[in-house]
């Protein structure tokens, strides 16, 4: 019996290994470029038609399955316990990726620790749901990259937190640079985004989007419905959040034009900073408009983490502290991050009391270098 299984599986394995991935990526990239061009030209009907072609193409399905079967979470199953850990299963999964008859399964709820000691809920989709999301993400990314704010750096290809910090330096380093900074943080951003706003405004297959938003989750054997938010753990969730917040920079710049103040926006996911030469403009003009913008989308600013500070007092952003000392801007790791790093090193050394010093140095040196 085992022999027959191996024989039947081998053609699929050979088929997966013989795929020309360079040609597959080029085919998908050409379609994505056409979607982006149609979006820029305002031809939304054409963009929608191209999205349909992309999500039904064999090349996009192959890339979607490859992504979910080879990323960090590929060994973590959903509620059905299935993982795609062989070439034969991956080929089988490509053939299963069909819109017809598709129904999203509930998410498996797990919890991971946050820095402040609280727990962050994650929703783990089944492999087939992850692949469907990855497939439609290929069609949505050209639109999100076209619509996203110029100085938004989170969850975007070829952008990182380091780019956001570099932009902060450009906006704050000069003597004539803005002196006041609004540190913004959106409260439970993933968990509170309004479903109706997403359905009305995101250019994606509505049937699929509704299923992912309303599929619910299973926690400790009990099923719970989801009336708001997009699950942390879903492949498409970061891009949905990016599109939800698209337009923040444009809003800020429009207020700056009316008031005549120099204003800059730097965003990373649900964290952002707005610099201005006037504290009054930040308090009386920009902050109320931000609150209204977020309320339309079911979101609110976090009172605990939203502050207006002077650059001489400094502020923390993305794990760094930015502050001017006698007119010179210095960027260094934030105090909380340094303490956390030292605590982790102490814990590691404490757990390995018998390790030879030379081996310990080899392990710690990469951590110290960063």
Describe the 3D structure.
InterPro entries: DNA/RNA_pol_sf, Group_II_RT_mat, GrpII_Intron_Splice-Mob/Def, RT_dom, RVT_N. GO terms for molecular function: RNA-directed DNA polymerase activity. Belongs to the bacterial reverse transcriptase family. With 370 residues, the chain is of the alpha+beta class. It folds into three domains: 13-150 and 191-243, no CATH class; 163-188 and 244-331, Reverse transcriptase/Diguanylate cyclase domain (Alpha-Beta Plaits), CATH 3.30.70; 336-369. Helices cover 52% and strands 15% of the residues. The protein contains 15 helices and eleven strands. The chain has helices spanning 2-17, 21-40, 44-55, 58-70, 87-96, 127-147, 161-172, 189-192, 195-201, 206-214, 237-245, 248-259, 279-296, 335-351, 357-369, and strands spanning 107-113, 119-124, 180-185, 217-219, 222-224, 263-268, 271-276, 307-310, 315-317, 320-325, 328-333. The strands form three sheets. The chain has a four-stranded mixed sheet with strand order 2-1-4-5, with no helix packed on it. A four-stranded antiparallel sheet has the order 6-7-3-8, sandwiched between helices.
